[in-house]
Structure to design on (250 residues):
């Protein structure tokens, strides 16, 4: 463990640029998702748009990951590999994207519904988005990291869902994954104290059913053990002397 890296205002300025590239690209992907599309098409768009903006995809080649964007459909939680899977009306699709620009990474995820989705799926998406907002609200100079984790967990569990335990958010900067690890569950008043200049990727992964997961035979894609739907939202944020700044805001 290297410890938590504090960024200077100018470094955060570069991260703002990286975050903007991620946000713009995710916006394009979210608009392009439609029934009948293969998930590989989303990867091609992500690759093209990131390069067009002068950045590089963070995930491509990361520990051997073969694509620029993780596309996780329905019961898939994270690390879905774009390929021949065809997106269908009613699916929910998580798009997890990272880009490196000027030596710094941005990392963000949205889950979108395709066409008409069930009320259950819509409520899951809204809850997961709300859990991220609750986490961001708790991420203030002087707060404990556990306050952030607890805010995410409480928001999701109070609505009857479970939070994933085996995969976590993280510090981010010159490395895609820096200290600290940021679980989607925890207790207030525990863990490191947040300080101005810390840059963090908060990423609630919320399941309709239980929290347990398993990994598919491709050794990447993580799915819910019980097959229930899962949603995922993520922002890269910077701790300030007030409300955290969202560096990957659309
Ligand atoms: Mg991500
Ligand atoms: Mg992340």
């Amino acid at each position: 463990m290297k410890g938590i890296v504090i960024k200077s205002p100018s470094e955060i300025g570069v991260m703002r640029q990286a975050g903007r590239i991620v946000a713009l690209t995710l916006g394009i992907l979210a608009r392009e998702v439609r029934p009948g599309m293969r998930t590989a098409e989303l990867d091609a768009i992500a690759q093209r748009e990131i390069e067009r903006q002068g950045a590089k995809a963070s995930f491509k080649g990361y520990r051997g990951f073969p694509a620029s964007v993780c596309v996780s459909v329905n019961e898939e939680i994270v690390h879905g590999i774009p390929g021949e899977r065809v997106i269908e009306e009613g699916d929910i699709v998580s798009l997890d994207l990272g880009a490196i620009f000027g030596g710094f990474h941005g990392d963000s995820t949205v889950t979108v519904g395709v066409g008409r989705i069930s009320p259950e799926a819509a409520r899951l998406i809204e809850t997961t988005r709300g859990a991220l907002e609750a986490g961001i609200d708790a991420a203030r100079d002087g707060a404990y990291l556990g306050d952030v984790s607890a805010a995410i967990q409480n928001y999701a569990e109070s609505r009857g869902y479970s939070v994933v335990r085996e995969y976590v958010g993280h510090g981010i900067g010159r490395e895609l994954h820096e200290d600290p690890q940021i679980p989607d569950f925890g207790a207030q008043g525990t863990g490191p104290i947040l300080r101005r200049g810390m840059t963090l990727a908060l990423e609630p992964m919320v399941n309709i059913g239980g929290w347990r997961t398993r990994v598919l035979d491709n050794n990447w894609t993580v799915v819910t053990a019980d097959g229930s739907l899962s949603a995922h939202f993520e922002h890269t944020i910077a701790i300030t002397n007030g409300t955290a700044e969202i560096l990957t805001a659309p």
